[in-house]
Design goal:
single chain; 6-stranded antiparallel beta barrel
Length: about 190
């Protein structure tokens, strides 16, 4: 099975290094020197990591055969893809690979069916479940501890405790105007 582990950013310096946007919780395992990665677009690879280092909080990689800024810049926006055994599990207890979460049924703690996870959207601040509802519409569920109460891989379901308005139209909107009007009524 193949997993996207990074996206190549802009060139750094003149010796062929590139910045990378890491898309794995295990960069030391997936993006270490000697790792051979497939690419999207396929014509850019495969790429073998020659060196890696952190500079100003960003991971910089250099690939075998890429020795200058021009070669590095040509790789910009290329996705790096690692081959992973489908039976392999992440090291952390509450960590999951996307393929483990896709197709899980999503239900509320009360047992109400919400839908099925069709995609995981990786945003800079958090991940989102893209959940297809039974009627074909989609709802986005933040993959955060406060909302996703349980992932049960054996039962193939994700149990959520959504706040009002996340999966339905029951959001309560309070405004200062409402408070001011209710204060006027008390006089």
């Amino acid at each position: 099975m193949q997993l996207v582990v990074a996206r190549i950013g802009r060139a750094h310096g003149i010796k062929g290094e590139v910045t990378v946007e890491v898309r794995t919780d295990e960069p030391e395992l997936r993006l270490g020197p000697g790792a051979v990665l497939a690419t999207d677009p396929p014509s850019a690879g495969p790429l073998t990591i020659a060196t890696g280092r952190v500079h100003s909080g960003r991971l910089l990689l250099r690939f075998e055969g890429v020795h200058d800024r021009t070669g590095a810049e040509a790789l910009r926006n290329t996705l790096l893809i690692a081959d992973v055994d489908p039976e392999e599990l992440p090291e952390g207890e509450d960590e999951y690979y996307d393929h483990q979460l896709i197709d899980l049924d999503v239900v509320t703690k009360d047992g109400e069916e919400v839908g099925r996870i069709t995609e995981i959207s990786h945003l800079p601040t958090q991940d989102l479940f893209v959940v297809e509802r039974p009627d074909g519409t989609e709802v986005f569920v933040p993959f955060v501890e406060e909302i996703v109460a349980e992932i049960d891989l054996e039962e193939q379901r994700a149990v959520i405790t959504p706040p009002p308005g996340l999966i339905d139209d029951r959001a309560e909107v309070a405004s200062s105007r409402d408070e001011a009007e209710s204060g006027d009524d008390a006089r």
